[in-house]
Each structure stands twice: as structure tokens, then as C-alpha cells.
Amino acid sequence: GAQDCRACARTAGGAGVKRYVIAGTQPWTKTVHARVSRSVEGEWSHVGTKDELNEAVTVCPKFIFVCHWHWLVPERIWAHIDTINMHAAPLPLFRGGHCLEHQILAGHTETVFTAHRVEAGLDSGPIYGQRGPISLAGTKAQILDRFIKPCASLIRWIVETEPEPVPQQGEPTIFKRLPPDEYQRFWEARA
């Protein structure tokens, strides 16, 4: 299982095929997977459910990239496999659920993608890097489409350079997901 993955990834070095997982529930994350898997050497998989993620960890991936995922990644995974969340906000600001919506509600017109290590605290892990700015204008589909290029760029850079993440700086702001009816009204008003 996941318990030996970091040691496996370190000792395999260049001897074996490096494996990577992109976990995402939205169609744009499959486009990110397609772009990255064509341009970065290794064995890439895309998973869209918790069961698929549980299956994917059995092949001992070097990194799991979490992009638009609706669930918390269990500690039994992130404690043993380098798991990186691609958060659409300038952390430590807008930690938590519906960060995109909360930024728009706060009057922001742009955001960035922040890649950070998954750990016990919600969106509190050290930061690998950021890409942006990304416009928050338009419909949800238009905004999500603009996520593809910076997200793929950030994943590619992390795989190629393996940077050391640095602790988040500044006071965090933490948000909860909007209630379902409020979330629906929010996007209907922007359609």
C-alpha cells in the first residue's frame, strides 16, 4: 500500500518508471492530465473518485496532484506519498472550501494557483509554488478553463525540479463551503 511509497520512490531513482497521479472530479482536470502526460516523462493516471484514488496508491506514485477534489485526502495516503493540492487561491488567504466563490464575493478579480503539501491542517501545508494571475471574470466554465494552463505548468515544474516547499507566510483566512442553494444561486447569477 501507501506505507512504503516515499522509500520506494527514493530508492528507485532512475531505475524504474516514475508514476504520478492527478486526482480531480471536474472535466478540466482531465485536460490537465492529458497535457502533462504528453509533455512529462513517466506513467500518469487520472482518478475521479475516492475508490480510484485508493487503487492508484497501490502502484506507489512519486506524487499525487489534487486538483478540484471534493474530499479530504486520508492521512494514510498523504503521510506516505507526496501529495500536493492545487489550490485556486493565494494561500494562506482563502483556505478551505469554495475558495473561488469566496474570492469573487470579496471583490477579487484575479487569483493564482498555489501548490502546497497536503497535511493535517486544511490548506495549511508548505508551498511549492504559484502560477497566475488568473482572471475570475465570466462564467464558472470560463474560469475553470483558464485553470488548465497554470495548473499544468505548475505540475510540470514540480515534477521537473522537485522544489522544497516553504512554510506559508501571513495570517490565514479560512472559509467553509457555501450552502448548496447559495452556491447554485451564485453561479446562476453569473451565467
Question: What does this protein structure show overall?
Answer:
Helix 2 packs parallel to helix 6. The longest helix has 22 residues, at 140-161. 37% of the residues lie in helices and 22% in strands. It is globular and about 50 Å long. The chain is built from seven helices and eight strands, in the order αβαβαβαββαββαβα. With 191 residues, it is of the alpha/beta class.
Kindly estimate the percentage of residues that lie in beta strands according to DSSP: 15-25%
> Unreliable segments (pLDDT under 50, ≥5 consecutive)?
10-14
Please give the share of residues in helix: 25-40%
Q: Quote the distance from N terminus to C terminus.
A: 44 Å
Order of helices and strands: HEHEHEHEEHEEHEH
Shape, principal axes of CA atoms: globular
Largest sheet: 6 strands, mixed
Count of extended strands: 8
Task: Please tell me the overall pLDDT.
Answer: 93
What would you call the structural class?
A: alpha/beta
Count of DSSP-assigned helices: 7
Order of strands in the sheet with the most strands? 2-1-3-4-6-7
C-alpha-based Rg, rounded? 16 Å
